[in-house]
Structure formats: structure tokens, C-alpha cells
Amino acid sequence: xxxxxxxxxxxxxxxxxxxxxxxxxxxxxxxxxxxxxxxxxxxxxxxxxxxxxxxxxxxxxxxxxxxxxxxxxxxxxxxxxxxxxxxxxxxxxxxxxxxxxxxxxxxxxxxxxxxxxxxxxxxxxxxxxxxxxxxxxxxxxxxxxxxxxxxxxxxxxxxxxxxxxxxxxxxxxxxxxxxxxxxxxxxxxxxxxxxxxxxxxxxxxxxxxxxxxxxx
Length: 216
What we know:
The protein has 216 residues and is an alpha/beta fold. Helices cover 36% and strands 15% of the residues. The chain has eight helices and six strands, in the order βββαβααααβαβαα. The chain has helices at 60-66, 89-108, 110-121, 127-130, 135-144, 170-174, 196-199, 201-215, and strands at residues 4-8, 29-33, 53-58, 74-78, 157-162, 184-189. Strands 2-1-3-4-5-6 form a six-stranded parallel β-sheet, with helices on both faces. Helix 1 (60-66) links the parallel strand 3 (53-58) and strand 4. It is globular and about 45 Å long.
């Protein structure tokens, strides 16, 4: 095996988000986390002993990986953020309003809200999974993303994002480019919405493997 890969899906999804990407990395040990929105929480990792550890997180999953007690050789963010509300005044004002509406809607009509959110992401919604939905986990993580998070613990950071992402707009992605992130690379795909990892898994794996081969 070439190393270990730790996967973490984003808000409103589960470990199945990675089904189309995992086959590309059959030469790695895969640890697929689940944040427990649909009844099967798996966030405890075994001791990783590989000489190469790679984290791949979608959206909120990027934050979750960044806060683990691990130093990744490479941390990959798909449609990621560190500050979901943003730092720019006008952008933050708009997103605060959207966030308030999302949280209120999730409390009142979780099924309809999740269905709408998946549609907005460009992803399908599995009605069967909703039977085991954990509203508590969803609300807790909405609170979790509402404040800024510290710098990820990684030697290299690769950001893959979508020009047309309606959930994490390009302006928010560009806020990740900071002087203290000395080893960061950002690439955009013109059309990927907020489900880049499932909609364009071939492009994603090509960019990740290219970075690994060229930098690690």
C-alpha cells in the first residue's frame, strides 16, 4: 500500500459520498469517516502508521479533518472553507442571513430542507436514509461551522473548488489563500456545484494523484 487516506464527507451527506472516488485509490488504505447524520457515526480512527497520510475532506469534512490530532502529508479540501460566513463585510452580511434561514428551516422541516440542500449542491437525495436522520447532529454541526477555525495541521494543502458553487462561493474559497499557508495550491473547475467529489470524481482523483506524484 502506498499510504493511508482519511475521508470525511460534508454537511448533510454521509460516507457514501465517496463511492465514485474510492475505486481510484485502491492502492491506499482507506478510512472513511461518517459524521452520523443518518444513524451510523464513525469518527474514531485507528492508529495510522503509514509513511504517507492524506486527508480528503468535502466542505465541512475539511474542517473536521483539520481539527484531528494528525499531521497530514497532504490535506485536500473539496469545496472547503475555514470561515463559512466569510470575512468580507458584504459577503458576511449576506451569508449570515442565509445561514440563519437554513438553521431555522432545518429545525422546522428537516426533510424538505435536506432535499433542497442536496438539490442545490447538485446531488441526489436518498429518502430511505432520511428515516434514520439525526436532527441533533445536523444542528450541532451547523453551530460548528458558524465560527472561524484555525489553520489546518498539514504539510501540503490542495484546494479543489467549483466556479459555480452556490454553497461555498469562489470569494469564500479565495479567503483560504493566506500568507501563513505556505504550501497551498488552489484549482477551480468551471462546473462542479457543491458536490465536486461525486459529480467529477475522475477530475478530482487526477488532480490529487498529480499533486502526490509531483510534491510528495
